[in-house]
Specification:
The protein is built from six helices and eight strands, in the order E-E-H-H-H-E-E-E-H-E-H-E-E-H. Helices cover 34% and strands 30% of the residues. This is GNAT family N-acetyltransferase.
């Protein structure tokens, strides 16, 4: 695939937004990552090409260059997550496989100071709908460490299906770690995941006020 359908694109749902990652996000990205080092370190891949918490510009420039190249090749959708227009984190749909698979993997992080506001599930629901109904993917996976309860709650709230443990799947925080595979296919959300998530939030708000 020479060019990814539906990319670049900016999406929003109330105060939550997704927009393409840009080189000029470097200062916000670096400051947010440094501020959230302890929050993020246990869950991030140990990748010497993109160190997590160095203060130089090189790792960020390398990452953005790689992701933008993959986006042009139809292999990734690298978004910034925003909250009220400000940088809040990242959400990347990557490892896209076309042909008879039409599948991809999704990863995300949001600043710990913004946790608990529904930002991540809202952003993920928007991304899933865009991938299924515009880009043309059929299956999305999120592989999460068993100990990462906050991230697991995100996909569980959205109805991702748990499909088992992948032993020592990724090198995380200095060692090979097990991951739980969660997945959705297009058939799971025929009317869209964002609409489903809105209904869930409305029901939760109603039950809480009654």
């Amino acid at each position: 695939m020479d060019r990814l359908r539906g990319w670049p694109v900016t999406l929003d749902e109330g105060p939550v937004g997704l927009r393409p990652l840009r080189l000029r996000d470097v200062n916000a990205w670096r400051e947010t990552r440094l501020r959230n080092a302890d929050w993020l370190r246990p869950w991030e891949p140990s990748n010497p090409e993109t160190p997590l918490f160095r203060t130089g510009l090189g790792p960020y420039i390398s990452m953005v260059g790689t992701l933008r190249r993959e986006a042009r090749q139809g292999l990734a959708l690298p978004w910034v997550v925003t909250w009220r227009g400000a940088f809040a984190g990242q959400l990347t749909v990557g490892a896209i496989v076309w042909g008879s698979a039409r599948s991809a993997q999704v990863g995300y992080w949001v600043s710990g100071a913004l946790a608990g506001r529904g930002i991540t599930p809202t952003a993920l629901a928007m991304a899933v709908d865009h991938c299924f109904f515009t880009v043309g993917l059929h299956r999305l996976e999120a592989n999460i460490r068993p100990e990462n309860h906050a991230s697991r709650r995100v996909v569980e709230k959205l109805g991702f299906r748990e499909e088992g443990v992948r032993r020592r799947q990724l090198h995380i925080d200095g060692a090979w770690r097990d991951h739980i595979c969660y997945a959705l296919t297009l058939e799971d959300v025929p009317r869209g995941l964002l609409a489903q998530w809105r209904q869930t939030r409305e029901k939760t708000a109603h039950d809480g006020s009654s």
